[in-house]
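Example record

The entry below shows one chain as it appears in the dataset: sequence first, then structure tokens.
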Amino acid sequence: METKSIMIVGVGGQGTLLASRLLGSVLTNEGYDVKVSEVHGMSQRGGSVVTYVKYGDEVSSPIIEKGEADYILSFEQLEAARWLPFLKIGGKMIVNTQQMDPMPVVMGKAQYPAGVIDALQKAGADVTAVDALSLAVQAGSAKAANVVLMGVLAAKTDIGFDTWMQAVEQTVPPKFLDLNRKAFELGYQYQ
């Protein structure tokens, strides 16, 4: 199998690291060679966080260059725009519609740009926009938006639902398992 690349991008505190562990678990369980690299920036201060995941028969490096990502899973709209150049032609982007104000917006020195998802589509990206926050609340907690997004990604892969659910069970602490199962299912069923 040729090597595939997935980027998970967001802002510190959104659960991107749990999402990358879940993805890594699924791919390892499927028998792929998997390489993961996490870049944290100022993640504890609401800064950009990106995880590179590459998988295939044999993977030498986790680093994804511009124009190489088969999928970009974005937990926040501006992060989707920031990382768009890394999406390959024909790649797919899953974008949470949530907006998290960067520091210049918080300080009143700038405004959050309008129409980010439309701009991504006009740039040629195949975008699935998801209100993951609402689906997570429906599942029982806003904190499960990351697992909702993983469900949306899972439905776009050729890896079976049961394999994904097994990885959720391996990755999520037992006391949050029912909530995360529901969140994953809501994401998986999203059109």
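Notes for this example: The two ends are 28 Å apart (CA to CA). The chain has one domain: 4-189.
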